[in-house]
């Protein structure tokens, strides 16, 4: 089913526009809340994914977070420079780079679950539980191939 046509399409009324705007608003608010830790909302995704063992290589992180490999490399460079993570070559396959949080990276990552829910709950404060669940369901449906 087509929901748009050339005649009916309006940029500011499109789903893509609303999703992008919502993402930007949320990223701005999250970045402000994370300022004290000196990490961005995108870096938060990397640190939490690594802490939970969901991803341990740049490729896995890129795929999981939907970030292109060039940007991922630059973000990992910044986190490594800050002393939050370390890179090492895989012994089994030298082409693979493994990532590991440092003690400081672990400490920063441990604080993130205290901060992120506050930002998210503030943005979702007008949603009922049913609306929140429906929003998650619809976003997951939108993202499914």
UniProtKB/TrEMBL annotation:
This chain belongs to which protein, by name? Transcriptional regulator, MarR family
UniProt domain HTH marR-type: residue ranges: 12-144
- List, in alphabetical order, the Gene Ontology terms for molecular function in this entry: DNA binding; DNA-binding transcription factor activity
| The entry's keywords | DNA-binding, Transcription, Transcription regulation
Q: Does the keyword GTP-binding apply?
A: no
TM helices/strands, residue ranges: none
* Organism phylogeny: Bacteria, Pseudomonadati, Pseudomonadota, Betaproteobacteria, Burkholderiales
**Record keyword Transcription regulation present:** yes
Question: Record's PROSITE patterns?
Answer: HTH_MARR_2 (PS50995)
Q: Which organism is it from?
A: Paraburkholderia ribeironis
